[in-house]
Amino acid sequence: MKIITKKGKNIYIRPPKYEETAYINKLWSDVDTTGEVGGPFFLPEGKVSSWFQKMVDPTDGHNFYCLIFNNKDEPVGEVSFHRFDDSTKTAELNIKIERIHRGKGYAKEALFLLLDYYFNEFGGEIMIDPVLLSNKRAQKMLLSFGFEHDPSNKEVFLLKMTKDMFNKIKDGILPT
C-alpha cells in the first residue's frame, strides 16, 4: 500500500492502518457525530476486511479514505471521496469530524488537503456532496469553503466544486 500523507498546519490526513478500523467504528457509531448525516453506522466484523480492501488497501480505484489526525497524533475524524466516475471525473465527498473536536478548523483544513490531492494528483475534475436538507452545519461550511449549491436536486442540498474553482481558491484568487 502506498501511504499518502498530506500535512496541513493543524492536522494531517492519511489512510488508516487496518487496526485503526476500531476508531472508524467508534466514529461511525457515535450518535452525536453522525446524527446530522443519517447515522449512526456500524461496520460489522465480517465486513471490515472487504471494506478496507475497497476503500484503503489496495482500493478499487474509485474510492479514497483517510483519517484526520491533529498535531498530537490523535484521530479526530475522516475525509474521503467515493464512487469516482471515470467518464465524468466526478466523485462524492465525505467528511466527518468527531463531535468533541468540532469548531477547531479541522474540517476546512482536511477538506483542502483532500481536494488538493483529488484535483491535482488523482485526476478528478468535479467533487459533489449531496448533503441532507437538514444538515445546515455542513451546508454552511461547504458554501463558505467555496462550493456552489446546485438546486437541480430537490431531495438533497447538492454542493459542487470544480478543479478550476478549487485551484483559484488554492492560488488565493477566490477567498474561503
Automatic annotation (TrEMBL):
Keyword Acyltransferase among UniProt keywords: no
Gene3D superfamilies documented for this protein: 3.40.630.30
Sample GO molecular function, one term: acyltransferase activity, transferring groups other than amino-acyl groups
Short name of one Pfam family: Acetyltransf_3
Highest taxon above the source species: Bacteria
PANTHER family cross-referenced by the UniProt entry: GNAT-FAMILY ACETYLTRANSFERASE (PTHR43415:SF3), SPERMIDINE N(1)-ACETYLTRANSFERASE (PTHR43415)
Keyword Membrane listed: no
Keyword terms, alphabetized: Transferase
Protein name (Swiss-Prot/TrEMBL): Protein N-acetyltransferase, RimJ/RimL family
Domain N-acetyltransferase span(s) in chain numbering: 11-166
Organism, as annotated: Thermoanaerobacter uzonensis DSM 18761
